[in-house]
Design brief:
The protein is α/β, with parallel strands linked by helices. The chain has a single domain, classed as 4-Layer Sandwich (Purple Acid Phosphatase, chain A, domain 2). 33% of the residues lie in helices and 21% in strands. It has 7 helices and 12 strands. Strands 4-3-2-1-10-11-12 form a 7-stranded mixed beta sheet, with helices on one face. Strands 5-6-7-9-8 form a 5-stranded mixed beta sheet, with helices on one face. Strand 2, helix 2 and strand 3 form a beta-alpha-beta unit. Helix 1 packs parallel to helix 2 and helix 2 packs across helix 3. The two termini are 20 Å apart.
Length: 266
């Protein structure tokens, strides 16, 4: 049976071109590894630290990632791309260029005899009202149309800078686990279970790799990120596990980053 892979929060483009390029090469290395046995790939939001599509222009860079994903899709890999809070302005360019399915909201998918609920996770659960308001602003079609009137040289640069500023001011909070009662996505999963049967909830956004039991039959898994942890999940014969990618480039980024205690090293 082929495997299904899940990954999120690569934030390509952050914090600068040099560091992002090393991470992008590592991601392409991982894609080459999973192509052997993968039938589906879910990129669960924030593939890019910033993305905005003008009618005739898109942000520079990321050619290795886009080319590799297009190659895998051409060879039969089913790719599902979710928008995150940093790249929510993805429109039709990437689905057409890569050949992937685009999701703007969480989805229920049945795979390998299991029911999964998959989404980036931003704006879900209690609290975070400031971001929920901003998301309504950023997803407003008229305001997006107005932003598209700004010349790309200025518009992309401005938004990219704001994205980096936002991530730098909130990223430290993502690494702290304060218990289930403080995990908004855990609370959201519990509420969802009241009206839906779900075996696995998979989210990104949080940046901290987590595997939490919701009840005897259901789990919440946060996919972590590829800034610090290099974690991903794999569904194999109906069993889902969180793992760490330790492929090596000229320098191993994991040599300077702690490996979370719960994922299985690979």
């Amino acid at each position: 049976m082929a495997k299904t892979y899940f990954i999120s929060d690569l934030h390509l483009g952050a914090p600068n071109d040099e560091i992002s390029l090393e991470r992008e090469k590592r991601f392409c290395q991982w894609l080459d590894q999973i192509r052997i046995d993968a039938d589906r790939l879910y990129i669960v939001g924030d593939l890019f630290d910033f993305w905005f599509e003008y009618k005739k222009a898109v942000p520079r860079g990321f050619v290795r990632t886009l080319g590799k994903l297009a190659e895998l899709a051409d060879n039969g890999l089913e790719i599902h791309l979710f928008t995150g809070n940093h790249d929510l302005w993805i429109r039709d360019y990437l689905p057409k260029e890569i050949g992937c399915y685009l999701h703007r909201e969480p989805v229920f998918h049945s795979l390998q005899g299991k029911k999964l609920y998959i989404g980036h996770g931003d704006g879900l659960g209690p609290g975070d009202y400031g971001y929920k308001f901003l998301k309504k602003v950023f997803t407003n079609p008229f305001l997006q149309w107005l932003f598209a009137r700004i010349h790309p040289n200025f518009g992309i640069g401005l938004a990219d800078g704001l994205s980096k500023w936002s991530r730098s001011h909130t990223g430290g909070e993502d690494a702290i686990y304060k218990g289930k009662e403080e995990e908004w996505l855990y609370t959201y999963c519990q509420e969802t279970l009241k009206s839906n049967e779900v075996d696995y909830f998979l989210f990104g956004h949080r940046h901290l790799p987590l595997q939490l039991d919701l009840n005897a039959d259901s789990k919440y898994i946060n996919l972590g990120d590829w800034i610090k942890y290099y974690t991903y999940a794999v569904l194999d014969k109906g069993e889902l596990s969180l793992k760490v990618f330790q492929g090596k480039l000229s320098e191993d980024p994991l040599a300077h980053n702690p490996i979370p205690p719960n994922p299985k090293n690979e």
